[in-house]
Amino acid sequence: MTGTQAEQPSEGEPIEEERGTGPVGALLLVGLILLLGIRGSWSAVAIVFAIVVMIFLHELGHYLTAKWAGMKVTEFFLGFGPKLWSFQRGETTYGIKAIPAGAYVKIIGMSNLEEIDPADEDRTYRAKPYWRRLSVAVAGSTMHFIIAFVLICVVFMGFGTADANSDRWTLQSVSGPALDAGLKPGDQIISIDGKHYSSFDAMSAAVRQLPGQRVQIVVDRNGAERTLTATLDKSNPTTGKHVGYLGVSPRFDLVREGPVQGVADAVKTMGTTAKESVIGLGRVFSPTGISRYVDNLTTSNQPTGSAASPSNQDRPTSMVGIVQIGSQAAKDGIVNVLYLLFVVNMFIGLFNLTPLLPFDGGHVAIATYEKIRSMIAGRRYQADVAKLMPLTYAVVMVLGLLFITSIYLDIAKPISIR
Predict the structure, then answer these.
(1) Cα–Cα distance measured from residue 211 to residue 235, given in angstroms and rounded to the nearest whole number
(2) Per-residue pLDDT reduced to its tens digit, 108-159
(3) For the whole model, what pTM was predicted?
(4) Among 58, 68, 164, 379, which is disulfide-ready with 140 (CB 3.0 to 4.6 Å)?
(5) What does each C-alpha distance from 311 to 293, 328, 343 come to in angstroms?
(6) How far apart are CA 273 and CA 279, in angstroms?
(7) In 3D, which of 300, 298, 181 has the Cα closest to residue 231?
């Protein structure tokens, strides 16, 4: 969301299409999407589409609030770089650009650095009152939080939540000793060494007490009982603790919630996820987190385990990684995909409120600082953004480096959640 100044036709003038790369560029983009579906998976295409919609709605939030505030918006584009296709309606140019790394809305006069035609000064971002500027700055993150709320409500009320206390559960994923023993997703464990457990947690607690031991497991597979033998690992590969480890995760029956309980749980889940996201960001940018990330980049490529493995813990993930994880999650059902998109929207909404430029949170911080200084001085105060540019350039460089390296890791060392 940056400002610009350009001569545009009035609102009443007809739509005018710009050439850019024209239909050829648009067809190339469609071809790449089809190739992704054919060579990859259509679930990946669906995830990409969901991300594009998410980015569009973020910028739509800025666009609508800026228009309502009477600000002049000159551009609304999906993507960056060379123009693929665009049209102009009134004073705004809309379109698609070649590099699908985000989107942007240009609002004139975002800072004191821009030279604006005096005739348009009263329509600049900087000329509007504090509450108007604040509403525009937070609109993008607000859209993410609205999307997240809708998604998690759909999960709770439309599909349901897992009842972890139920004894009706089957295996969702199998690895390690369980895989070696012949267990498969969909199996229902009836007993271990002749003992039946009322819940997965009870069974897991019993297994942890048997490190390295050989156990007999009876499972129900498609209505027929099978007896298998597994030798438990002596430690949990994720935590490193000396406990018995079988290598299974459960799939529980889903129980739908009513509207009141669903909304209440949605709000609670959003709060918990927000807290975990902030803590996760702190770990990523801590000295230990940075050191772990550098180790990931510099060590030779090795097979990756689960997403929770130590090498992948709190690893920043690019949009490439999100598509990969989403494609894997889709194999276990749409609920997992919806929950992933919920988490992504919560994280982006919070991350975008970081009080530094070029984040929207930087504009919030500047507007708030100007408001406080204006109240103290008794007259309108406008911050000199030029003083912030060295820090802004540093932030952009860090983001660019993170963008490139995270894509590299997601391609060279993809995270597996299965």
Answers:
(1) 7
(2) 999 888 889 999 999 999 999 999 999 999 999 999 999 999 999 999 999 8
(3) 0.76
(4) 58
(5) 9, 19, 21
(6) 10
(7) 181
